[in-house]
Amino acid sequence: MQVELDKQEITELLKSSDRERADLLNRAQEIKDAAVGNKVYFRGLVEFSNICSKDCLYCGIRKSNGKVVRYNASDEEILAACRFAWENRFGSVVLQSGELSSPAFVKRVDDLLKGIKKLSKNELGITLSCGEQTLETYQRWFESGAHRYLLRIEASNRDLYYKIHPNTEKHLFEKRIEALHFLREAGYQVGTGVMIGLPFQTYEDLADDLLFFKKMDIDMCGMGPYIEHEETPLYQYRHLLKSKQERFDLALNMIAVLRILMPDINIAAATALQAIDPAGREKALKVGANVIMPNLTPCDYRKEYLLYEDKPCLDEDAELCRNCLEARIELAGSEIGYNEWGDSKHFQNRKS
Ligand code: 5AD
Ligand code: FES
């Protein structure tokens, strides 16, 4: 069932509109249903700290943004959010933070992993999203219970990568690629992704991003529209951007083409979609996505984890978020995979 597409064909699909686009989106939905079914899996997202040692030019919580109030949620707060996920049968959580690599940080995450496994009687699945680390750190965290890891490549074209990151030792493209290989070696289900609609990004770049995912044989993908943030260097190029609606539509096309290229991977309906269209994530579920990450970050911290403008759900508490989500997911025609890890079928298929 897997479809091979070359760069030219992918580029054309990404540009498609009207009838062709409707065909593309429908085809992706059919392929998704056949390959992974119509279940949607929840990952309760806990953004446990916005302290970051890096300076990505697009990101609102970059180190040099002095306007951000930095926070570090307490272990109790983090574990309480995970307990909420467990009690509400979410199946899995994602721990995300700014990028740090000090021994204290590595140990803290390690302790949290053990704490989450303990409080949920080993039931909660755990995804980490804590940036580039050494192979040893990845291995240590894997042994303590994390089994999936998200590390977006952000842009697979090296030149574009350096247009959106400082050209410094701390932001090397090669190191990021290496980190993705380390994750595979350590045994994780590996997730990556890109931002869509970046300044300087072409349709060909996006086609290459999809071919990069295929070449890396990834298990999971999270990608969403780039959304400008005023307190970042990339904001100066906002005149180069497509409209938000165009970025949104392009993001849906990217999800659909990826589903056609890699039928059995997990694809997340990125939160950034919802920043443009209130029903953005549900629309993504209809064209290929099968994972949603409800925000469980303690409310007081949410306004300090603004990676981009108009980030949604800033003042809803987790419970509310879940109720509105449930209704909207059912409206989108999907079923929620309660209490399931919802592992990547692609990962399972590779193993067997
Ligand atoms: N717009 C959209 N996505 C962003 N991210 C960071 N900054 C932005 C932005 N301005 C995404 C990155 C990162 C993920 C956690 O959030 O892709 O990997
Ligand atoms: Fe924190 Fe990019 S700014 S990792």
From TrEMBL:
[4Fe-4S] cluster binds at C52, C56, C59. The keyword Heme does not apply. Residues 38-261 form the Radical SAM core domain. The keyword S-adenosyl-L-methionine applies. Binds 1 [4Fe-4S] cluster. The cluster is coordinated with 3 cysteines and an exchangeable S-adenosyl-L-methionine. Pfam families: Radical_SAM. Gene3D superfamilies: Aldolase class I (3.20.20.70). (3R)-3-methyl-D-ornithine binds at S129. InterPro entries: Aldolase_TIM (IPR013785), BATS_dom (IPR010722), Elp3/MiaA/NifB-like_rSAM (IPR006638), FeFe-hyd_HydE_rSAM (IPR024021), HydE/PylB-like (IPR034422), rSAM (IPR007197), rSAM_sf (IPR058240). Residues 7-34 form a coiled coil. Its cofactor is [2Fe-2S] cluster; [4Fe-4S] cluster. One of its GO terms (biological process) is sulfur compound biosynthetic process. SMART domains: BATS, Elp3. It comes from the Bacteria. One of its GO terms (molecular function) is 4 iron, 4 sulfur cluster binding. Keywords: 4Fe-4S, Coiled coil, Iron, Iron-sulfur, Metal-binding, S-adenosyl-L-methionine. S-adenosyl-L-methionine binds at E154, R176. This is [FeFe] hydrogenase H-cluster radical SAM maturase HydE. It comes from Maribellus comscasis.
